[in-house]
Specification:
The complex is a heterodimer of chains A (162) and B (294).
Chain A lengths: L3 E8 L2 E8 L4 H8 L18 E4 L2 E4 L12 E3 L12 H8 L9 H14 L5 H7 L11 H17 L3
Helix pairs in contact in A: 2-5
Chain B lengths: L6 E3 L4 H11 L3 E4 L5 H6 L7 E4 L9 E4 L2 E5 L4 H6 L1 H6 L1 H8 L4 H6 L2 H6 L7 H7 L3 E6 L2 E6 L4 E3 L2 E2 L6 E8 L5 E9 L6 E11 L5 E9 L6 E2 L1 H7 L6 H14 L10 H22 L8
The chains are: A alpha+beta (162), B alpha+beta (294).
């Protein structure tokens, strides 16, 4: 049995810890050790972006980072978007604008677009497409994802939501 | 895919990291951004027994002009290069390059030092640094040594870094007035390696004559290739469409591509010719020459 180490992270505002082998990828730590299964494992080769989470404010592909590297970090996953039972404007946008069909890529899309809107609250269509260039969607053709982000951008500006 | 087991080490300083490299020998690897290393470990193309994580070493991430050079810390992320006001205003070749590396999430972790130290000719910074005549600072047990970029890439995945050395800094000579650069990359999709790419950096004198020129080629040989004959033919000349076409042909002749799933060798040679033309023209525009005479 390989050596395990204690890994502590703050996930969606809560302090959590668990033992893990150093080779355990962050995505498996989040899903299996912490039981937060909103983050998906897609291609597992750093291409598709389904596993995108936000680590210390930056989007990363959690299939290409070891959990032990995130020790002490502040991590946000798709579960962190809901506030007091209400959908985040981005989640609402994906629903209203049909920004998903099968939904597999959606958790990663939401994390990439959330990070984009934090940095750039009113992105142009080009900037939105650039922002999701590390996330693949096989259903929508991206058109409605762009609309969903525009919806959220407007709604967040009106409502003063972060 | 779960990578093979390894022992994880997290030094706080560069000397500590160097000591760990010495202690664990060839089977130890530096973990920088990990965006090439971790995929290779998943595929068992790399099986380090020890990973030395340098991400928590402070003072290895910076972009500054100092002592006649632009100095980039080895641990500087690609995304930091992309958002740096200094890079955005003065180093268009670096900016072009950083924005086409992989995708946004990968650029948040991937480091400039790692992109070079990995020794992969398909990576984008190697050709860029060849064009910029960069120097590599390697830190080992005896301190720092400076390696000229032309001596850095030895063969596929092999650099002149010793196993107990860490790439700690990249130095790029400050560009004189009337300098410009550009990087043109053809990729099948975001996140793919270049089918081929060309980096050009040049400096003109006040009459528009080429004083300095660097041309680096990506993913068309076992190392990044300096298109030396193309450079030689342009140096000392005022450029027009004919000289640019001639240089582009020479660069294409100097490329050594092999056929792969991105296309046959002849196609890649053709690409190098076209991309070289475009990169020279864009570099000239950026150096202040408005239009290239026919």
């Amino acid at each position: 049995m390989a050596k395990k180490e204690l890994i502590k992270i703050k996930i969606n505002g809560k302090d959590r810890e668990a033992m893990a082998e150093s080779r355990l990828l962050l995505v498996h730590f989040i899903r299996e050790a912490l039981g937060q299964t909103g983050t998906h494992v897609g291609c597992d080769t750093s291409n598709c972006g389904a596993c995108t989470v936000i680590v210390n404010g930056k989007t990363v592909k959690s299939c290409t980072m070891f959990a032990v590297q995130a020790d002490g970090a502040d991590v946000m996953t798709v579960e962190g978007l809901v506030k007091d039972g209400a959908l985040h404007p981005l989640q609402e946008g994906f629903k209203e604008e049909h920004g998903l069909q099968c939904g597999f890529c959606t958790p990663g899309m939401l994390m990439s677009t959330y990070a984009l809107l934090q940095k750039n609250p009113q992105p142009s269509e080009d900037e939105i497409r650039w922002g999701i260039s590390g996330n693949l969607c096989r259903c929508t053709g991206y058109q409605n994802i762009v609309k969903a982000v525009q919806y959220a951008s407007k709604k967040m500006a009106q409502g003063g939501v972060k | 895919m779960i990578p093979p087991a390894f022992e994880y080490l997290r030094p706080k300083t560069v000397p500590e990291a160097v000591a760990l490299l010495q202690q664990h020998g060839d089977d130890a690897k530096i973990l920088s951004g990990g965006q090439s290393l971790i995929p290779m470990m998943k595929l068992r193309l790399a099986r380090p027994s020890h990973l030395i994580d340098i991400n928590r070493i402070s003072g290895l991430s910076y972009i500054k002009e100092d002592g006649g050079f632009l100095k980039i810390g080895g641990l500087t992320r690609e995304a930091e290069l992309e958002s740096s006001p200094l890079v955005r205003s003065k180093y268009p070749l670096l900016l072009d390059t950083a924005t086409v590396i992989a995708d946004p999430q990968v650029r948040n972790l991937a480091t400039v030092g790692g992109n070079l130290a990995h020794g992969d000719p398909a990576n984008d910074h190697p050709a860029t640094m060849v064009a910029l005549a960069a120097q590599i600072v390697a830190t080992g047990a005896k301190g720092e040594r400076v390696i000229a970029i032309d001596d850095f890439f030895v063969s596929l995945f092999t650099t002149s870094l010793q196993h107990d050395e860490i790439l700690t800094e990249i130095r790029i000579p400050l560009p004189p007035a009337r300098s410009g650069g550009a990087y043109f990359k053809l990729e099948r999709k975001v996140g793919d390696f270049a089918t081929a790419a060309v980096a050009v950096q040049l400096t003109l004198d006040d009459k528009g004559v080429v004083q300095k020129i660097g041309i680096g080629l990506t993913n068309v040989g076992p190392t990044p290739i300096r298109a030396k004959k193309a450079e030689d033919t342009l140096r000392g000349k005022k450029l027009d469409a004919a000289t640019i076409t001639q240089a582009a042909q020479l660069a294409s002749d100097e490329a050594q591509p092999s056929a792969d799933l991105r296309g046959p060798a002849e196609y890649k040679k053709g690409l190098i010719k076209e991309l070289t033309k475009r990169a020279i023209v864009r570099a000239l525009e950026r150096a202040g020459q408005i239009a290239v005479p026919n």
